[in-house]
Write a structure and sequence with these properties.
four-stranded antiparallel β-sheet
């Protein structure tokens, strides 16, 4: 069973076809690359999967669930996200703070409690921090720079 499957995806902008029958399947644990020249539709595929673009036809399945019509924030809540070629980090904040901001889609607290950092928001923040430290930072092997200000780091580390 593929963890992510794209079936016969079509996308057009006006009369211009950007994707014409794209299909792919990514198995659990597989490293998968989408390569091609400029204008081949690589970014369009990723934007359809993340629901930034809405394909004309076709299906996108994640763990056998059809996510083709889900809103982008719900797709992000499932753990589907993409990176961008340009770095969009908060240069005056630490590495850890930038990671926390990127993980905010998994929080369940409301705006008000999150703003005051109390109750459920505080408990979720503590839990999220533990997950971040144990999974993301360890995975990326960036323990030594976790408290460094992002803007002071070389481009390659950012």
């Amino acid at each position: 069973m593929a963890q992510l499957e794209v079936q016969d995806l079509h996308l057009s902008f006006g009369g211009l076809s950007a994707l014409n029958g794209v299909s792919l399947a990514v198995e659990p644990g597989e490293i998968f690359a989408i390569i091609g020249p400029n204008g081949a539709g690589k970014t369009c595929i990723l934007n359809c999967i993340c629901r930034f673009y809405h394909p004309d036809t076709g299906k996108i399945l994640f763990e056998d669930r059809d996510v083709t019509q889900l809103a982008s924030h719900k797709v992000a809540g499932l753990g589907i996200a993409r990176t961008f070629q340009n770095i969009e980090l908060f240069q005056g904040m630490t590495v850890l703070d930038n990671i926390k901001l990127g993980a905010h889609v998994h929080l369940r607290s409301g705006f008000l409690s999150g703003g005051f950092y109390w109750g459920k928001a505080r408990k979720e923040e503590v839990k999220l921090r533990q997950e971040i430290e144990e999974r993301i930072i360890d995975l990326l092997e960036i323990q030594a720079i976790r408290k460094k200000i992002v803007g002071t780091l070389p481009y390659g580390l950012q």
